What does this fold into?
Amino acid sequence: MVQQEARQRRPSIHDVASHAGVSAATVSKVLAGVTTVKPENAQRVFDAVERLGYRVDPLASDMRRAKRRIIGAIMPEFESEFFGQMVTELEGLAEQRGYTLVAASSRESEAREKEILARMHDWRVAGVVLAPVRNEHGPAAAFMKANGMTGVLIDRVLSDDAFDTVSADSAAASAEVARMLVGKGHKHILIIGLAEGAATVRARLEGFRAQALTLDPSIRIDVITSEVSVEPLRSSLRDYFGRGERPTAVYSLLLKGTLVALSEFRRRGWHCPNDISLVGFDDAEWMQVTWPAIAAVVQPVRQIASEAMNLLFRRIDGAVGPPTARLEPCQVLMRESVGSPGSGPHSGGGDRQQPPLS
Amino acid sequence: MVQQEARQRRPSIHDVASHAGVSAATVSKVLAGVTTVKPENAQRVFDAVERLGYRVDPLASDMRRAKRRIIGAIMPEFESEFFGQMVTELEGLAEQRGYTLVAASSRESEAREKEILARMHDWRVAGVVLAPVRNEHGPAAAFMKANGMTGVLIDRVLSDDAFDTVSADSAAASAEVARMLVGKGHKHILIIGLAEGAATVRARLEGFRAQALTLDPSIRIDVITSEVSVEPLRSSLRDYFGRGERPTAVYSLLLKGTLVALSEFRRRGWHCPNDISLVGFDDAEWMQVTWPAIAAVVQPVRQIASEAMNLLFRRIDGAVGPPTARLEPCQVLMRESVGSPGSGPHSGGGDRQQPPLS
DNA sequence: GCTAATCGATAAATCGATTTTTCGTTCTTG
DNA sequence: CAAGAACGAAAAATCGATTTATCGATTAGC
It folds into this structure.
């Protein structure tokens, strides 16, 4: 490609047309791969494109079509590995198909979620991948429905009557966690989570409970959830331990819960797995390098992203039929943070503000 | 806003015009806030907008202006907290000004970085926030220069002759780390890093070295860097320890290096800070809940994002003058992973594949 | 009272592509 | 050899806004 001298204005399709001695319509057809153009003219168009360094303006190109080659992605946050990877994957998949991905963070707010969606509707995006803040019944999905937008719901979602959904099979993963913990001999387990994703959280909870009670009906399962943010969860957990409750294992249904649990263990000077075992939903890179390594449920990010995009483009291409609800299998990584109860001394006792360093 | 019945086609400015009994030009002027419109007509326009639920199509609106209200953001990755927060901040700041942010991940590849940039140029973005994979001298910045694009370079960058730059003051932060480590009595310190960000890494290195040698000229500073990816770093580190080298502290110049160091410590059964101290550049949420908590340099993400956007919009609005090079101050969080050398037994010894669990 | 300046609004051009319509050739075919 | 089909390409309409040029109706000024 030869550097164009005038860097002020980029060459338009008309510049190419006049250089090639044909009309703009012909240029458009050649670039679109239409075969009813004389080979000689096609060659002259290619030459002119090369000489001018011409590239199609996607904005102008999208003007005339109803469905623009833009995909919107709305995630609750970008700061976690899970959603970070998700956006990376989605972006790559959109690009492969010649689409541009516009990603936005709802910052865990349903109000913002709806605003972003309205803005994406303004852009007349071809489709939306929405990871809702709460669940599939929020105002964002309703907005999409009311405006006839096409989209796919992922992550904190189980199934919907209007949109395809793709999420991790958290129930199955939780059942596997239950098998492992019960197998290790745990008889008093605490589950912590946020009620945000209603159906999803319930799936994880029930998946665990059903399996655990099947294996050992005498098992005791306590549950601490918080409706809104993570801070109430922290204080509830503190109260719970403060009351003298001593489960031998904790299963956190979300990453931030795992962090809260770890920090509460720290506060009390408890070590995993001697004093208490810990498993968290959602893996992170650091979990395998800390001491102890933290056991975690790994969500199949790539599969979720790829399946979501497949379904989305099928709908964009006009596929009809009832919405599907996909569940992608997770992997459970058992690491050192899980042991058998009673294998080490339970350091019970009071609240040490400053944990010992050795 | 009243729900429109026909959800097929959204109302255009002409629909509003005919409903209000005026021309499309008048509608455009009213919505742009031009005052030379009879109040009565303006009111009728507002009424029609309300009744039809009309919203401006940003694509069509941008067609006629040279600078479109789109900002491009290119990050090396989305998976880390740092870049995740960065994108969130940039998105919010762009939105505040009525711009749409299109973010893309270069996935640590300079080739991809340039491709993305070319695509953003196709979109005729008003400006670009580029966090280069290597440094300010890469092909991406050259492309921006050659095509007269306006942009700001951030993060792995010190200063440039064409673009404003904003980054963390890593030299000052590294000097502070040096003060703290030397203050604790460390006399043999290992620094690990990637040479990717040439100037930035050198700044961190020299910032540390200069300060450390000033405080204690007899101090020994070893440096292990890898040119390309993180895996060679891991093996170099393994070799280094395998040769019997026993620094009392490690300073990692990047997050992934901190993870590599931790995993090597694990492999050898060394604990922080008894066996070795550790400080890392770049903080992460988990670092304060693990045991021990990991000392880290916190980068001022919000300040970098906000300053970058300020500079960018100043240029978009036509500001001229030589490019500026901003350095935003970091915060150093000393945590339990740093202690004094010799305060605990150095567990020296060989390579234990399986670290002891208690 | 007639021309000139002012005001408000409309018609038309524009942005850069795509798509439909029209048109001029060449090739068939009766 | 003339009428019609087939082909290739140009002209024109379109997408939905913004901006410039134009125009008619008041108002001002002399």
In short: Residues 1-6, 346-358 of chain B have pLDDT under 50 and may be disordered.
